[in-house]
Amino acid sequence: MKRAMYLILAVVILVGAQAFAPPSEAQIQRTGPVQVQRDVPMQGFQASLQVGADLLGYLIGVKGIGNENEVIEQKLVQAKVPLVQKMPGRLKISDIVLRRAISTTTTNLDFFEWRKKVMQGKMVEARKSGSITFYDAALKVVAIYNFFNGWPSQYRGITLDGQSGYAEELVLTVEGIERVK
Fold it and tell me: What is the Cα–Cα distance from 108 to 170, expressed in whole angstroms?
């Protein structure tokens, strides 16, 4: 019984190895080189945050830009047949998470100072409009998002990331956002 199981296992291993073995030179010469067209995704190099006329720095991470509508289901009856029609409801704008690198030469407290205005209840001063600009590896502008009446709803102090070093995060709550480029 054990011998039969080992024999079956050996056959499975050999067949599997042949199925996943790289092609031989004879197979390559017979079929020729394979031409594969791949779309290379654009990799974001960096982004910048501008609030009013002030540049608050370059960002190593941005996530959460988006919006969605609640869905309202309206029940209708047409020709005695019940139907459900879906309509757009209230628009919800997503919060934006901004991540900024910190180094020993950076003493910029803008993120924390902005959040501090909210904690002190100074919402008129805290609500600001601005833009997030994304750049490619050649520092060409790829996309620009303008936000309106944004204020920091969360601040996450310095964290250590093995890839990017020290970083801080700011969660930006906005009332409106539009892509202008």
Answer: 13
Regarding whether 134 and 86 lie in a shared domain, the answer is: yes
> Residues 54, 126, 49, 157: is their CA dihedral positive or negative?
positive
Of 159, 153, 58, the closest CA to residue 115 belongs to 153
Average pLDDT over residues 137-142: 89
- Measured distance CA(159)–CA(134) in Å, rounded: 23
Q: Does 162 share its domain with 107?
A: yes
Claim: this prediction has a pTM higher than 0.85:
no
Q: Which two tokens stand for residue 159?
A: 């964290």
Same-domain pairing of 76 and 101: yes
**Same-domain status, 25 and 103:** no
